[in-house]
Amino acid sequence: ILKAAEKLFTENGIAKTAVSAIVKEIDVAQGLFYYYFSSKDDVIDEIAKRYNQDFKQGIEKSLKEEDLDKQINSFVESVATSFKDFWDKFQTNDSTKDIVQLTSKSIEEFKNLASEELTKIINKGNEDEKLDIKSPEYYAKIIVGGISDLVEQGMNDVEKMKDIVNELLKKENK
Length: 174
Known about the structure:
Elements: H1 2-12, H2 19-26, H3 30-36, H4 40-63, H5 68-89, H6 100-127, H7 136-152, H8 158-173
Helix pairs in contact: 1-4, 4-5, 4-6, 5-6, 5-7, 5-8, 6-7
């Protein structure tokens, strides 16, 4: 149901996708849809949760790095790649502008999750005396928001992003 709904939402927009179209796509009775979901909004929430799980798995890989520089670089690469994949999947056109309901919710959740994880990385760097960042939460939100905005605008040079993030964190460290 989720895959069919996502496909139709992307093709037609949320408002133009009826529950009947979703069940027709996978050839099941409409009652089955309502057995699992009470509305299209529930489907949107579930699709967003799925993206957030995938996003979180990517970020968790970066946290496994031992070296702080590798951890930061892996984090930036994971976040930038995840945002790019997401934006590529949900490019909107006039008929699917309402897909923003799904993308906005997911992007905000992505940003919050990524900011929390980057805050942990910065705090660990502070504890290990490899960084001296006074406001880790602010830095994390600014960095993650910046990565998201750059990717949304098509500026996808991950190496440049890594350099800027490292420079920003190291500059504050002096």
